[in-house]
Amino acid sequence: MGRIRILAVRARTLLAVCGLVAVITLMFSTAFWRQIYPIFYYPIIQTEATQMNVNPLLIAAVVRVESHFREDDISHAGAIGLMQLMPDTAIWIARKIGQPLPGVSATSAGISGTSGGNVIAALTPAQSKAIILALSDPQINVRLGSWYVAYLLRMFHGDLPEAVAAYNAGPNRVQGWLKQGVWSGDEVTGDDIPVRETRHFLARVMYTYGMFERHY
Questions:
Q1: Does 153 share its domain with 75?
Q2: Domain that holds residue 151
Q3: How far apart are CA 110 and CA 29, in angstroms?
Q4: How does DSSP classify residue 80?
Q5: I need a surface site. Which of 40, 63, 105, 125 has the fewest CB within 10 A?
């Protein structure tokens, strides 16, 4: 009887060890982490980001944090689509790259089209609806957002944490923090950023970007 109990204990121990090995193996598996951190719309992201000379995995990280890959997501602040673009900024970007948004004529609407300006007040209801539809299109949204990320990277001389923070808080605000010594611009000092949303955005994007780089 005692021998049977010993064998049963050994069998359970062996099963537990095998299970633990299986879990550890799974956790180090690329396939496992791709299930945990999937990249939807990757063909679009890869195409548009590459055209703008930006790492597609960085754009995918921004998309995941901003919208969790929901193309029709609209924030309380009015940001739209995969990369959560504000309409004002999207119109400005579209004009900069020479690809006006479908259904929106900046000249006919009297839109100045400057980044950070309030151009929405100049839009008719039909144009506002057209902007929402356009920015809900994954390809249009990622194209404009990828250009903007590239623009911020150039503005901040390739400093990734600064550019990522600027995507959330705006470049003028980030430049102010840097000039005033509020933030050093480093990822490790991200807790010094005085805006909670931007602190969390920077941490989440950088973490997600690192995960994507390791497993894609």
A1: yes
A2: 42-215
A3: 54
A4: B
A5: 125
